[in-house]
Design goal:
Layout: H1 17-51, E1 62-73, H2 80-94, H3 100-124, E2 127-136, E3 141-146, E4 155-159, E5 162-165
Antiparallel strand pairs: 1-2, 1-4, 2-3, 4-5
């Protein structure tokens, strides 16, 4: 009966300890490369929809300007024009007439001057407003009156009664 030696006990068949260590290090490096590659792949996959412009939730404040009309609007009187006009009108009215006529002309000049001064102040403070039509991304249309002019086709955000330009 012949006895065969076991492979484990044979010194010729056993791997050298350094060779085993290199093999183990190789496996660890390979495993870390695979895990790192999977992680990078997941990150790239997660970033791809945002980079392509697709969004999970639609923008509820986004829209495009479809029409713009400009209007001149009178400013508001602060009272300075009325007071100044009343003083000038009263002085001019006081130069005319005598007695009761003088008093009536002074009062009438002050009233007329106050009204005229207030209208002049409003005219000086007039400004342009823009009635802007925005087609929202959800399909609705909004009309807003704003003090800033936007070009037709501009991409904008609408927040309440304000319109702001958004990045192209």
């Amino acid at each position: 009966m012949s006895v065969q030696p076991s492979r484990r006990s044979s010194p010729a068949v056993q791997a050298h300890p350094a060779r085993r260590a290199f093999r183990m290090v190789g496996w660890l490096i390979g495993l870390s490369l695979v895990v790192g590659g999977l992680t990078l792949g997941q990150r790239a996959h997660a970033v791809t929809p945002a980079a392509s412009g697709a969004s999970a939730t639609p923008c509820t404040t986004c829209g495009v300007v479809t029409n713009v009309q400009s209007y001149e609007v009178k400013g508001k009187g602060s009272g300075v024009g009325a007071v100044g006009g009343a003083v000038v009108g009263g002085l001019l009215g006081n130069q005319m007439g005598r007695g009761t006529g003088n008093t009536l002309m002074t009062v009438g000049g002050a009233v007329a001057g106050g009204f005229a001064g207030n209208e002049v102040e409003k005219h000086i403070k007039k400004h342009t407003v823009y009635k802007t039509t925005v087609k929202m991304d959800n399909g609705t249309t909004r009309e807003l009156t704003v003090s800033q002019q936007f070009a037709i086709g501009s991409k904008v955000n609408v927040n309440g009664k304000r319109i702001t330009a958004r990045a192209q």
